[in-house]
């Protein structure tokens, strides 16, 4: 007797579906997972689990497969096609994510792979939510030719359209070579992990062939290179766990999109507490160094802040902080590095940070102790005029609430650039230790009184007298306040309370730029 096989039941179909999804998560080749772990790397799904709140991830197109043929591709069509896409939450707020799966085609991008990424980018834009990319891929899928390259073009276009609309964060957790490196470069923040992150346009083999230079993968494009030399990476970590934890911390301080304010988080720190330790932290002598990060810690909530680009352009500190629970961007001179002068790297670092804060409604606090721009043939030839102007342009273009505070020195063009009253800061404050002038009294005396000093019977004594005279007339703490260029000279111990009140007053600031398609910032 023959048994007739009936159609599959719904239970059969559900079992099949569960099996397919589990296979996609585990990977078709267990050895590939072992190789990933052997390199000290997590899988795409493990990374997403660390990034998002537990149980919140919803995957999109987990069963997608490529349709390419040739070079044996038709025989290898794994689900997900090497990229995991979807959304979940971070601290309860929706975040979209895509993660390359290096176990499948080395995470290389093909047509279907690119379409999945493009879809999730479109969804993030439509929902008005941040997008995080977890990058671990070998570039374009060579077997798919120009279709793969076109896929990158679609991603770059979406990165650009999303710029200033939703926060975009790139996390480098493996190789990223060739054109693939440009997507992270178009995003707002780049995270890198030592030992596994590598970014470069042309690899060591090509460099050796073309230029004869010998360099390792890490030496060419490792995490530390991009964190301290090129400035491509904003944050550098020793392992994936701490890296993804800081991505969560950053997301918690950012608005979901440019139509929202950053999330407030009232804490237990007294908004109006005095900060008298600042009197000891900042030496009265303008030639003595100190660490501006200690000043920032004293002022902000719970002495906690998130520094951006900590190891690149270290003579300028950029950080996200909270003042009375409100997210604020801080741009500060750093006397502990190059005496706090502005140079090319610091200017570009500051400009990028100011533009980001302005795009996402984050108020700006500028702490000033700057002796000027860094002099030198190298700086001039490498474009300090053009590149230094980026910071000036960014401030002049910013419409968010802006407060500047001069702690000690503020000389020359650098004083103007660091959000002075003349370029539009809403409130200009200073400590009674401030020296706002074209240049320091010593240098000014040498220029203004050069002939008198030279003709004097005692040049040294005459020079000292002229220095005192110049300082008495032009460099005293109240000169700028008398002319309305400083709104108030404040007690350093009251700094936190004054700043909290100032930003509370400015919270509803309404400022518009002239109608235009866009500006043309210095490049």
TrEMBL record:
<dbReference type="InterPro" id="IPR011762">
    <property type="entry name" value="COA_CT_N"/>
</dbReference>
<dbReference type="InterPro" id="IPR011763">
    <property type="entry name" value="COA_CT_C"/>
</dbReference>
<keyword id="KW-0436">Ligase</keyword>
<dbReference type="GO" id="GO:0016874">
    <property type="term" value="F:ligase activity"/>
</dbReference>
<feature type="domain" description="CoA carboxyltransferase C-terminal">
    <location>
        <begin position="274"/>
        <end position="517"/>
    </location>
</feature>
<dbReference type="InterPro" id="IPR029045">
    <property type="entry name" value="ClpP/crotonase-like_dom_sf"/>
</dbReference>
<dbReference type="InterPro" id="IPR034733">
    <property type="entry name" value="AcCoA_carboxyl_beta"/>
</dbReference>
<protein>
    <submittedName>
        <fullName>Acyl-CoA carboxylase subunit beta</fullName>
        <ecNumber>6.-.-.-</ecNumber>
    </submittedName>
</protein>
<dbReference type="Pfam" id="PF01039">
    <property type="entry name" value="Carboxyl_trans"/>
</dbReference>
<dbReference type="InterPro" id="IPR051047">
    <property type="entry name" value="AccD/PCCB"/>
</dbReference>
<feature type="domain" description="CoA carboxyltransferase N-terminal">
    <location>
        <begin position="7"/>
        <end position="266"/>
    </location>
</feature>
């Amino acid at each position: 007797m023959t048994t007739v096989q009936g159609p599959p039941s719904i239970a059969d179909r559900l079992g099949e579906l569960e099996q397919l999804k589990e296979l996609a998560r585990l990977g078709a080749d267990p050895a590939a997972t072992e190789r990933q772990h052997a390199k000290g790397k997590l899988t795409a799904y493990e990374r997403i689990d660390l990034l998002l709140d537990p149980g919140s991830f919803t995957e999109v197109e987990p069963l997608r497969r490529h349709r390419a043929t040739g070079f044996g591709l038709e025989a290898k069509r794994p689900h997900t096609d090497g990229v995991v896409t979807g959304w979940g939450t971070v601290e309860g707020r929706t975040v979209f994510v895509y993660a390359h799966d290096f176990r499948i085609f080395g995470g290389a991008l093909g047509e279907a792979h690119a379409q999945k990424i493009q879809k999730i980018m479109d969804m993030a834009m439509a929902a008005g939510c941040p997008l995080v990319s977890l990058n671990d891929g070998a570039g374009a899928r060579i077997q798919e030719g120009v279709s793969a390259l076109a896929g990158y073009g679609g991603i770059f276009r979406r990165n650009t359209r999303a710029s200033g609309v939703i926060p975009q964060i790139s996390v480098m957790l493996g190789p990223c070579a060739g054109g693939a490196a440009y997507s992270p470069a178009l995003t707002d923040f780049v995270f890198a992990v030592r030992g596994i992150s590598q970014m470069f346009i042309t690899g060591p083999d090509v460099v050796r062939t073309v230029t004869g230079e010998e360099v390792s993968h890490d030496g060419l494009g490792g995490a530390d290179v991009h964190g301290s030399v090129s400035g491509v990476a904003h944050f550098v970590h020793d392992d994936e766990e701490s890296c993804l934890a800081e991505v969560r911390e950053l997301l918690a301080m950012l608005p979901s999109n440019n139509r929202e304010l950053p999330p407030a988080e009232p804490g237990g720190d007294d908004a109006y507490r005095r900060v008298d330790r600042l009197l000891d932290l900042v030496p009265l002598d303008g030639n003595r160094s100190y660490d501006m990060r200690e000043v920032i810690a004293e002022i902000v909530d719970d002495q906690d802040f998130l520094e951006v680009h900590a190891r690149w352009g270290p003579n300028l500190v950029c950080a996200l902080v909270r003042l009375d629970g409100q997210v604020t961007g801080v741009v500060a001179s750093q006397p502990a590095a190059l005496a706090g002068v502005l140079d090319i790297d610091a200017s570009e670092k500051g400009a990028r940070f100011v533009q980001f804060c302005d795009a996402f409604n984050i108020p700006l606090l500028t702490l000033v102790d700057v002796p000027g721009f860094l002099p030198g043939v190298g700086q001039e030839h490498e474009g300090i005029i053009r590149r230094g102007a980026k910071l000036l342009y960014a401030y002049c273009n910013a419409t968010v609430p802006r407060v500047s505070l001069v702690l000690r020195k503020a000389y020359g063009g650098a004083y103007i650039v660091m959000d002075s009253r003349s370029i539009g800061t809403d409130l200009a404050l200073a400590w009674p230790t401030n020296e706002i002038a074209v240049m320091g009294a010593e240098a000014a005396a040498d220029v203004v009184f050069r002939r008198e000093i030279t003709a004097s019977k005692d040049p040294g004594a005459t020079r000292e007298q002229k220095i005192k005279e110049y300082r008495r007339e032009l460099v005293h703490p109240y000169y700028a306040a008398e002319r309305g260029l400083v709104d108030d000279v404040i007690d350093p111990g009251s700094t936190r309370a004054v700043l909290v009140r100032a930003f509370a007053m400015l919270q509803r600031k309404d400022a518009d730029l002239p109608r235009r398609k866009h500006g043309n910032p210095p490049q």
